[in-house]
Amino acid sequence: MSTNGISRLGHALRLAGDRFLRLGEAGQTEAEADRIRAVRLSTVLHNTPLMMGANIANAIVALIAFAGSDLFAWVALWAVLIMVIAAYNGIAAWRNGRLPPRQVASLRGSRQAVVFAAVLSGLWAALTVLFYPHATDHQRLVIVAISVGMMGGGGFALATIPPAAITFSVLMGMVSLLALSVANEAVGFSLVALYVIYTAIIVRSSLALCENLTIRVRAQMASDEQRDVIGLLLNDFEENAADWLWGLDAELRLRRASPRLFEELGCTDEQAHHRFLWELLPCDGSTCGTPYKLNGAESLRKLLTSHTSFRDVEVCVVQDGEPGVWSLSAKAMFDAEGNFTGYRGVGRDVTQAREARRRIEHMARHDSLTNVGNRVLLNEGLSRAIDRLERFDEHFSILLLDLDRFKQVNDTHGHGAGDELLREVAKLLQSVCGETDTLARLGGDEFAVIHTSMQDPRAVAALADRLVNALSQPFPLASGTARIGVSIGIACAPIDGRDADALMRNADLALYRAKADGRNRFHFFDTSLDAAARRRNLIEQELRAAVAAGSLTLHFQPLVDSGSGRIVCAEALLRWHHPTLGTISPTEFIPIAEDIGLIEKIGAWAIREGCITAASWPQPIRIAVNLSPRQFAGTGLYAGIADALRDSGLPPARLELEVTESLLLKTNALMESTLVAITALGVRVALDDFGTGYSSLSYLRKYRFDKLKIDQSFISDIETNADSRAIVDAIIRLGHDLGMSVAAEGVETEAQYGILRSLGCGEIQGYLVGRPMPADELEKILTNVREPGVIRQIA
User: Residue 471: CB partners within 8 Å, gap ≥ 6?
Assistant: First the structure.
């Protein structure tokens, strides 16, 4: 290869390396990149001691696993190398962490992190490469567990530095996979998928984390810039303020003054001497008092004739046709006999200071984007309204507004259009609200209005109705037309509270109800909302305690074969009996578990407990467990299912997982890959409540389901409603044509049973064939000596 070719190759490699080191910095200026890079490196530095501790702990685990082995000496040498490097880096990071944080960082820091990640991942990969082929089964299990754990843990620990996270995960994964492929074992193929999934998750999470970090640092930089602007205004005032001295005699005539005063007055000292100070001031009686509402010439005359000292008395003056403010301070002088001899004072032009203060006060109380009030102004308005309520019994209302579909505008038109829309919304709200109303933006797309009116209480409802109608109209933006709406919650004082916190809380509860009722509407607070909120808070606290204490149980509702009446499956249903609250319905506590993030833990327990229980049932009776869409948001669903099957010994074909159509509305790569992996285990997947959601037939073509469960809403009137019967018939035939079994829920009468059996529905579930029951009751039915598994006789 020629010298030029080598040079071009080297240049291309350097460019590629530079681009790789700048992963996660797209769209950043150089200043932003240096600042954000410092934050990212600081985050990793903060976690490094803990990370190095984990390295040492895992090295010790590997050393223990090979104790007594022929390879122990080599493993010990490898472990010592890991421990030395980890201890050195951990101590160095701990020492550096005690230093003041750096504000900027160059690419050198990222490069060092990548090199360190490569070295450390190489050492961990060496564990697999060097020792896995010669290890026992137990030792191989330890190696695999450590490798997967270190790849995932190290990748996430370095997530704020994408190049380092990718280097660590990919290098360790590739080398480990190479060793596993040489071993030519079946477990290698599963680990390949596991490594690929972990690597994809780490890369995506790392880039997303960097994006969020960029937004946060940019917001901080904007805040710093705004603070600097305010500081400049204050510095400008200090630099430009100029004081002057003046003195009056006993007759209050000017005797002496600094040249600066004559410059301000626009006259000579001869013209000013022996004149009264209030006559010298350029104060026009027609303009004094505006816009500052300060003292004029007459007020100053009265003050001076009182022969008393004063400080920082501000008077209004007019210079070149513009109003200004002078601040005067003076000490009254007296001789030894106590006779008044005049004044000695100082003055300064504080016009710029007053203007700066006025602007600062405005900025402190107003939103910078929309120029309407902010939380400070809202709190002050609430304090005044509550004070008038207590003193004069003036009623008022607080309205909390939340824009509907605002996120859609941001996603479709961009954040610039979102800001433009907020400004237009603020203008519209100002035009709809009355002059006595207080309007404030609370943040994001939330606004608040304090409505003070002594008219009919229905006036606030009329205002809310006008707001809903006004914000339902299209908004023309530079990027196109946006259509939004608004949900409003209303709390009225004193009916709904007499203090600010109670009123804001109750208005927020009313807003939540308005959004739950379909949005683009308003809702008044009522006591039932408060009771519901308190009940929900109590259930949340008790549910956490119940999960920790293992107080939840499973009941099982049988599904029978429509032809033979034998039990073919049982659906596991969560039950919770509280010692003081009594039995709490799953429809109440499961949504709360989803909201507070407990559903993954509860769902994993239900799968494991269901598999253990079903393992004792006669074959081939299946167990059905419901899955929440929230469980697919985590990464542990597949592993939990696989572990439950392995530990219980239940064949995968006897486990049936039920999902609803809501899961399929917003699919993502993680959900789809998890669903495919679960199917690959041999587990059956059923589409629950079919017909109640969007019921898109594309789901049946895109995903593989083993069963369709017809929702009970179609079964309840199948005897009298021809439309329901036709729909059920169509679903059954559709399921048979697609090779799926079909089950009907909510069967309660013999007539319903007979119709479904005649239509070819294979499985029946409902109170007619069996209510949910504890595991021991179901066990008695399944092991009935006379007719095991038969729960009803078929005529």
Answer: 403, 425, 428, 484, 485, 486
pLDDT in tens, 576-599: 998 888 899 998 889 888 888 899
Q: If we measure between CA atoms, which residue out of 361, 365, 396 comes closest to residue 378?
A: 365
Q: Give the Cα separation of 244 and 257 in Å (integer).
A: 7
Check residue 242 and give its pLDDT. Answer: 62
Q: What angle do CA 342, 343, 349 make, to 5 degrees?
A: 150
Query: Which among 145, 126, 125 has a CA at the least distance from the CA of 137?
Result: 145
Pairing of strands 475-477, 480-482: antiparallel
pLDDT tens digit sequence for 124-135 = 777 777 777 777
Closest CA to 85 of 42, 44, 52, 127: 52
What is the pairing mode between strands 475-477 and 446-452?
unpaired
Tens of pLDDT, residue by residue over 643-672, are: 999 999 999 999 999 998 777 766 777 888
| Interatomic CA distance for residues 773 and 784, integer angstroms | 16
Sign (positive or negative) of CA dihedral 98, 100, 101, 104: negative
Q: pTM here?
A: 0.47
pLDDT, tens digit, for every residue of 480-532? Answer: 889 999 999 999 888 888 899 989 999 998 998 898 888 889 998 887 776 77
Q: How far is CA 133 from CA 73, 142, 173, 281, 529, in A?
A: 16, 13, 16, 98, 65
Cα–Cα distance list, 701 to 591, 596, 705, 728, 739 (Å): 30, 34, 9, 20, 12
CA distance 782 to 753: 21
Residue 529 C-alpha from the chain's centroid: 24
- Cα–Cα distance, 110 to 224 (Å, whole number): 26
Closest CA to 40 of 58, 55, 22: 22
d(CA 212, CA 162): 13
Torsion angles phi and psi, residue 60, rounded to 5: -65, -40
Chain mean position to CA 675 = 26
CB burial string 515-551: b at 16+ within 10 A, e below: beeeebbbbbbeeebbeeeeeeeebeebbeebbeeee
Bridging pattern class, strands 322-334 and 310-319: antiparallel
Look up tokens 């209302």; give the residue.
397
Question: 165 with 203: CB under 8 angstroms?
Answer: yes
Phi, psi dihedrals of residue 790, rounded to the nearest 5°: -95, 120
Strands 310-319 and 254-257, sheet pairing: unpaired
Residue 242 token pair: 């100029």
Nearest-angstrom CA–CA distance, 146 and 630: 28
The CA distance from 439 to 381, in Å, is 9
Spell out the residues 6+ positions from residue 664 whose beta carbon is closer than 8 angstroms to its own.
696, 699, 703
Q: What is the DSSP string of 240-290?
A: H--EEEEEE-TTSBEEEE-HHHHHHHTS-HHHHTTSBHHHHS---TTTTTT
Upper half-sphere CA count for residue 757 (Cβ side, 13 Å): 16
